[in-house]
Design a protein that fits this description.
By secondary structure, the chain is an alpha+beta fold. 50% of the residues lie in helices and 23% in strands. Strands 1-2-5 form a 3-stranded antiparallel beta sheet. Helix 1 crosses helix 2, helix 2 crosses helix 3 and helix 6 runs antiparallel to helix 8. The chain is globular, with a radius of gyration of 25 Å.
């Protein structure tokens, strides 16, 4: 006979443990409604303690990543904790490695979907439950804050950059005109250069088509107001604002930016040069930039 789990029982268990409602309901179901057994179940899982830490600030941690599938796929996982001491701990590093391994096999569209998946190393629990147990073991709040995955096609190449402290990482995806051009060492070198540049320069998009229209409109309004405040004639304001928008787009989009390693050339020129060396053409498709503490 199936035990009916009441809202009152779930509420009582939640008050006793600080665990989430769904975790409490599951614990009661697993233990036939027995309150004490359910408390013990949650404590063994590490969920009770982890829930109480959930609201703590998590500005430290590690961003793990991996390139695989012959360089055509790359993943990043941002795992945050409370202190740098824990972030540098070997056990925390193992937790990040396990989550990266999960992401290698996961095509989840976002963090919530990723956390809801069965954990590959132990399908009896979800990824979220694994993270809660990790939180219990570290004694700190542990959170998966962001994930990224790029799957390039046959002519695609994915590059990755991870800062030495693990707090900043990027992915970039390019597509070459032929498989031979994609496999060429110049293309392999190019994606590393671009991933590194994105880490340093933090562009908003590959080119102007990727900048949200509302962002451009906002910048235009600011430029117009600034021009008015300096006393410029109304007939000139539109032209001045347009010029400032052009400068803004050049500054915040990847391809027109000056390359951090050699400001004499742009990223667009860098791509063109490496494509010629590879014997084809190369298009920069997209990028991701994950940084601990960034919103």
């Amino acid at each position: 006979m199936t035990t009916v789990i009441t809202a009152k029982a779930v509420s009582e268990l939640r008050q006793r443990t600080g665990a989430g409602m769904m975790d409490c309901k599951k614990a009661l179901e697993e233990n036939g409604g027995d309150m004490d057994a359910s408390v013990e179940y949650l404590r063994k899982k590490g969920i009770a303690k982890a829930e109480k830490r959930a609201d703590r600030s998590t500005s430290e941690g590690i961003i793990g990543g991996e390139i695989f599938n012959h360089g055509r796929t790359g993943v990043l996982v941002e795992v945050a904790c409370e202190t740098d001491f824990v972030a540098r701990n070997e056990d925390f590093g193992k937790v990040v490695a396990q989550l990266v391994a999960q992401r290698v096999h996961s095509t989840a569209a976002d963090v919530d979907s990723f956390l809801a998946e069965p954990f590959a190393a132990d399908p009896s629990q979800t990824v979220a439950e694994f993270v809660k147990i990790a939180s219990s073991k570290t004694g700190e709040a542990v959170k998966v804050k962001d994930v990224a995955r790029f799957d390039a096609g046959e002519n695609g190449v994915v590059g990755m950059y991870r800062h030495h402290n693990g707090k900043l990482a990027t992915l970039v995806q390019v597509t070459a005109s032929t498989p031979e051009a994609a496999a060429h060492e110049s293309t392999q070198q190019l994606v590393k250069f671009i991933a590194e540049h994105i880490a340093a320069s933090a562009p908003l998009a590959v080119d102007r088509t990727g900048v949200p229209a509302e962002k451009i409109e906002s910048e235009k309004r600011i430029a117009e107001e600034q021009a008015r405040e300096t006393g410029k004639p109304e007939a000139m304001i539109e032209k001045i604002a347009t010029g400032k928008i052009e400068a803004f787009l050049k500054d915040v989009t990847l391809l027109p930016q000056a390359w951090v390693r050699d400001p004499a050339i742009t990223i667009a020129a860098l791509v063109k040069d490496h494509a010629e060396r590879a014997g084809g053409t190369i298009t920069v498709d997209r990028f991701a930039r994950l940084q601990l503490g960034a919103e």
